[in-house]
Amino acid sequence: METRSITAEIPRVPRMPEDPAELVPELAEVSAALFKVTGNGSVPRSTIGLVHLRAGQIVGSTYLTVLHTGFLRKGGQSEERITSVASWQDSPYFTAAERTALALVEAALQPSADGERVSDELYARAAGHYEPKALATLMFAIGQVGFFSPVALIAKPVPGRSFSDPWK
Fold this sequence. Notes:
Blueprint (H helix, E strand, L loop, with lengths): L19 H4 L3 H12 L6 H15 L2 H13 L4 H5 L12 H14 L10 H10 L2 H24 L13
Helix pairs in contact: 2-8, 3-4, 3-6, 3-8, 6-7, 6-8
């Protein structure tokens, strides 16, 4: 297993100097469609944000975790809720529906020793908390951050820069 180095320096420029969205302008349509789908109102924006933050943590992207932490703060989420996403299983700050959404993102993005990532039990729990459109929206929200994870991990935009302009 490859070990990750620990550095005290935060890069001040992205690894990939060109903005991928400028190189492939068709991305704008895809991105807008994904944001429209996940913002359809069937799942609370706060739940989507929590799921996106947890996904960023799972894939190990500082850019995504900083980005989604900022969005949650701007959305009025408490520091307790934001900081305890990493340990949501024993945190008192989440509803049963939010816990299920967080379990779903973990199951979808992490390998399972048992083979199937999303168990029938977890699916049934999610279906008990979310109407069909909301459950589909939640699946797309997990896919949305999955879609952008390779950009964050490969191109390495600088954490803390504007979401609309991470390459400047």
